Amino acid sequence: MTTTYRSVNPARLDDVVAEVPLTDAAGFVAACRTARAAQRGWAAVPAPVRGQVIGNLGRLVRANLETLAQLVTREIGKPILEARGEVQEIIDTCDFFLGEGRRLYGQTVPSEMPDKQLFTFRVPVGVAAIITAGNFPVAVPSWYLVPALLCGNAVVWKPAEYASASAAALAALVRRSGVPDGVFSLVDADGEATFEGLSAALDAGLVDKVGFTGSSAVGARIGELTGRHLQTPCLELGGKNPMVVTPDADLSLAVEGALFGGFGTAGQRCTSLGTAIVHESVYESFVGSLGKALADAVIGDPTRDDVLYGPMLADRFARRYEEYLTWIGDHHRVLGPIGRITADNPRAGFAGNPADGLFYHPALVADVRPDDELFRTETFGPIVGVMSYRDLDEAIELANAPGYGLSSSIYTNDPRSAFAFRSGVSAGMVSVNNSTSGAEAHLPFGGNGKSGNGSRQSGVWVLDQFTRWQSMNWDYSGRLQKAQMDTQTISPDLEFRL
């Protein structure tokens, strides 16, 4: 039975952005079957031509940048400056992969036998099922869709329901870029129908690769499911991202990085700052400065250029954030009010009317301990913990302790500290004197531990997710040459001494 999902503007809850029919598991399987039928024809299109299609998509997105950014802001409440940056990320990704259509290189490899050549080729995996979150409703999907299509795969994309209008807009641009019918499909479904449909599609041999961005818990379920089919998914999961502040750090820069990394997009990024780990000599100064910066920050209407953050993405994220606030204990020191911003719990300088949407106070929690739930677990929302350390080895140990491994940051002016942190931290991404948030289209993006399975997106590294290596040997000697048996041998005089 078809149900309808209402996508609501979280900054204005009376504004229904879209009403989207959700399909069931059978609808997901049907889309995968269509993709399977279309994939071989798409793979037969020369890679440089597929690259031209990606270039077309980049130009279409550029022409529609402002419209798409405004839609993202309206649908998920992301501040408009960040929304424009998100759309620019799609353009950057297309610009990069346009050229990769001419660089899907294999290698010619010398053989150990005469009159024989060895070759390697990149070949598409087949059908890719892509499931994405809605906090980056168009940029993160492009990290999957663009390289997957470039490499000759067919794609079935299941976006987050609460970002369905943004997804539909991006899908319309993809279809008009020159991608043939059936090669790309958008499927709207809830989580359980998607999982059931994915399981059935894998059983039927219709899906060859799964890409998933979302929570660590759901990622573990997908990893278990695909593992039964001897597949390795591309998993981009949550993070509890640390930021270390050393005694020699530029403290004002560190505060600025914590403000953006911890509270931009209302802390609803997988790369958001989780815990600031600050040297005891500058601890109180950092806490006080960050508290003041937060108090001065503008929160509210996401259509304004000057807001730090707007609302929570949707009601379920607001409810979950309220649960995180219950983890604040008696031993913690909280700077400023917490909870939902209302007339009875106001925020000075709020931009707009807080009653219109899902707006929450930022929570800065000092004196966090290693055994706190607030320290160990990802908190998806505008909450940052702060704890102290004595030496860098202790800071690195604390940075790794929660078991995630997505992003990390260190603020220091000592190269030795920077490189010691890089070699010791378990995160897949390290920033020096920059925030935990921020990605560029030509760098590998991804994490380890509870943050992912080591797969990487962006840059040339993602090509290994959407292609498989195939080797070929061509013997033109006219006789059977047996490897390791018919090879030429050289007889050295290894007893020779000067």
From TrEMBL:
GO terms for molecular function: aldehyde dehydrogenase (NAD+) activity. It is an enzyme of class 1 (oxidoreductase). The keyword NAD applies. Transmembrane segments: none annotated. Belongs to the aldehyde dehydrogenase family. Homotetramer. This is aldehyde dehydrogenase (NAD(+)).
